[in-house]
Amino acid sequence: MPYIKTHYHPFLFVLITICAMAELGLTAFLISAGNENHNWPSARYHSLLILFEFNAVWTTMFGTAYLLWIVDGAVHFLASIASSIIWLVITTVLWGVAAGMMHSTRAGGDCNWISDSSGFVSASSPCSQTQDLSSVTSCRETLTVEAVGWVEFGLCALTLLATCMWLRTSKRSYVSESRRLV
Question: Does the pLDDT of residue 29 top 90, yes or no?
Answer without folding.
Answer: yes
